Amino acid sequence: MKKEDLTFKEKSKEKILKTIKHVLNYIRHNKNKTKVIAGVVAIVICVGVVSIVKLNSKEVLACAKSRNIMLEGETITDIALSGSREIEKGPSKSYGKVVYLTIDDGPSEYTDEIIKILNKNNVKATFFMINSNMQAYPEQVKNIVKNENTAGFHSVSHDIHKLYTSPTAAKNEFDTNQKTFKEITGETSKVIRLPFGSKPYTPRSSYNALMDAGYKLWDWTLDTEDWRSTSPQIIQSVIKHTSDTDDAVLLMHERKQTVAVLDEMIQHFKKEGFEILPIKQSDEQRNYWNGKLFKTEK
Ligand SMILES: [Zn+2]
Q1: Are the beta carbons of 242 and 99 closer than 8 angstroms?
Q2: Residues with beta carbon < 5 A to ion ligand 1?
Q3: What's the chain's Rg over C-alpha atoms?
């Protein structure tokens, strides 16, 4: 508390004591005691009500504090949402609007159609692929590479209960991805995405093992939640959440409803002046751990 606050408090105390003395004197010398006493009672009730209201506002503050503590367990999507809100408050920039289309959980029966839509619009995307799906759809893996999209890895198990059983378990899964990808295409990639993001499930030891192996870990800044949405919901959500941002890493999945709005989504981004880019192997990774999830972070 500041010094000025203390003196102010003391002064107020003195004033209150003086007033009480005056009132008591007045009661003593006044004939119409009942009326005066009623007045005093009314004042006491008022003071009581004011104190209760003040207490309540303190409780609200305490609630807000405990909510901050709860935020420790938030997901990448929570972080991304609150982060993009922070950015929305900042001054708007008129240069370099960029969006990364990232498509998880493939390849699948939809991959070729997705590539067709990307090609039609002359844009590239990043595909984060699961090991068993690479094995099931090797031609689609080749198609991704042939059309100059970025191939990224998305684990073997896609299971947080298996990825973190030891500090190197996740790294080993991505090594397996690497081996499968090399067998199919003869190429390598260092771009990866952890299932469900790198927060809150990933321990630091697992993150460190991935970094030591030279992997580049990408989280996202906007989750389309396409896996549980209809096509109109997906496009509406994307339009809404990118209206005040100039930089987005968009999380999508290889789902029918996503493919159905992909063309419209790309048209929207172009119209709004976004450059649509694939993640490059040489790009600096952007994740929760390195504090580069949002471009404005230093
Ligand atoms: Zn996934």
Answers
A1: yes
A2: 104-105, 195
A3: 30
Looking at residues 88-93, what average pLDDT do you find?
47
- Find where tokens 């100059």 sit: 148
- Compute CA 262 distance to the chain's CA centroid, rounded to the nearest angstrom: 22
Is the pTM higher than 0.70? The answer reads: yes
| Cα 254 to ligand 1 centroid, rounded to whole Å | 10
User: In angstroms, what is the span from residue 202 Cα to ligand 1's centroid?
Assistant: 14
Distance, CA 130 to ligand 1 centroid (Å)?
8
Spacing, Cα 180 to ligand 1 middle (Å): 18
At residue 6, the pLDDT reads 45
Separation of CA 191 and ligand 1 centre (Å): 14
Both tokens of 23, joined, read 């009132």
Query: CA–CA distance from 82 to each of 66, 76, 87, 88, 244 (Å)?
Result: 17, 10, 9, 10, 13
Over residues 125-147, mean pLDDT: 98
CA dihedral 111, 117, 121, 122 (to 10 degrees): 30
Confidence tier at 47 by pLDDT (50, 70, 90): low
- The pLDDT value recorded for residue 69 is 38
Return the H-helix or E-strand segment holding 223: strand 222-223
For residue 291, report the distance from its CA to the centre of ligand 1, in Å.
22
**Confidence band of 33 (pLDDT split at 50, 70, 90):** low
For residue 185, give both structure tokens: 């295409």
User: What is the CA(177)–ligand 1 centre distance, in A?
Assistant: 14
